[in-house]
């Protein structure tokens, strides 16, 4: 996959800058060597005075390179930096655009009822904008078979559905290529539809990516999945723990309230007895 994210772009820029520097260095070395070569007569027969246009052009080119004013550097460093920057931009424009890998996403496993419809999702991630030449391809491999058949293909803004295979008139494109969505809808499911569906996407120039697969299982009654059972057990356990905590704090509150009422009544009783003793003394 290589370096992902902005680091990949930085690394690519460093490589291109290094290539530009090497090209400039080689060009300078060749020009300096050429300036020391004596006048040549390219493609000119030694016994005739006839000279070809190519030979005349090359002779004039080397004569210009040998001229001392060609190697006079500008007085200001800023001018030299500007020339180097322009040369780098030109060379970067010449370097061909490199392709990067894309990542394709589908589900792992889908369950559906007999006779129902199901949407198989497919999307991809790419560092580039969505190309007008984006393509999506779906293939199907039945359970117990090693061969895959093509059931859908999207390219050039048009969707092409297989009208001769097992999904004849039952596949519909419901994706949005502009949003990198290549989902399809399979209608009226049958037990023979059990198998593996593989999605492949291309976003030129990014065409390198591993296809993603999703397995479809058709049931007469959708079974309860293990994850649902596990979630139910965890929910029951958490509910019991919460109930125990609530009962514990409720009991503490009732006990504290009982103790408070007993202390208040005891204090009031002592106060009443004290007042009665005072009345007797009087």
TrEMBL record:
Q: Which PANTHER family match?
A: MYELIN P0 RELATED, MYELIN PROTEIN P0
Lineage of the native species? Eukaryota, Metazoa, Chordata, Craniata, Vertebrata
Q: Does the keyword Manganese apply?
A: no
Entry keyword Cytoplasm? no
Listed Gene3D superfamilies: Immunoglobulins
Looking up Pfam families in the UniProt record yields: V-set
What PROSITE patterns has UniProt attached to this entry? IG_LIKE (PS50835), PROKAR_LIPOPROTEIN (PS51257)
Native source organism of the sequence: Cottoperca gobio
The UniProt entry, under InterPro entries, shows: Ig-like_dom (IPR007110), Ig-like_dom_sf (IPR036179), Ig-like_fold (IPR013783), Ig_sub (IPR003599), Ig_V-set (IPR013106), Myelin_P0-rel (IPR000920)
- The name under which this protein is listed is Myelin protein P0 isoform X2
**Superkingdom, natural source:** Eukaryota
UniProt xrefs under SUPFAM superfamilies: Immunoglobulin
């Amino acid at each position: 996959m290589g370096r992902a994210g902005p680091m990949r772009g930085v690394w690519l820029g460093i490589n291109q800058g290094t290539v530009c520097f090497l090209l400039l260095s080689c060009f300078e070395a060749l020009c300096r060597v050429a300036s020391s070569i004596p006048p040549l007569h390219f493609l000119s027969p030694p016994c005739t005075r006839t000279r070809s246009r190519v030979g005349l052009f090359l002779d004039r080119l080397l004569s210009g390179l040998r001229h001392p004013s060609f190697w006079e550097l500008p007085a200001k460093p800023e001018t030299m930096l500007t020339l180097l920057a322009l040369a780098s931009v030109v060379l970067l424009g010449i370097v061909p655009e490199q392709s990067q890998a894309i990542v394709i996403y589908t589900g792992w496993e889908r369950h559906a009822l007999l006779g129902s419809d199901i949407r198989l999702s497919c999307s991809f991630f790419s560092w580039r904008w969505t190309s007008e030449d984006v393509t999506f391809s779906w293939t199907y491999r039945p359970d117990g078979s090693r061969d895959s058949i093509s059931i859908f293909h999207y390219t050039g803004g048009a969707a092409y559905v297989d009208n001769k295979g097992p999904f004849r008139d039952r596949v519909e494109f419901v994706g949005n290529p502009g949003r990198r969505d290549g989902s399809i809808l399979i209608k009226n499911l049958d037990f023979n539809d059990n198998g593996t569906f593989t999605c492949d996407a291309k976003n030129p120039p990014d065409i390198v990516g591993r296809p993603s697969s999703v397995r479809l299982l058709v049931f007469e009654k959708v079974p309860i999945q293990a994850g649902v059972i596990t979630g139910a057990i965890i929910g029951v356990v958490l509910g019991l723990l919460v109930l125990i905590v609530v009962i514990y704090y409720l009991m503490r509150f009732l006990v504290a309230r009982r103790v408070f009422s007993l202390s208040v009544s005891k204090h009031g009783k002592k106060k009443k007895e004290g007042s009665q003793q005072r009345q007797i003394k009087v």
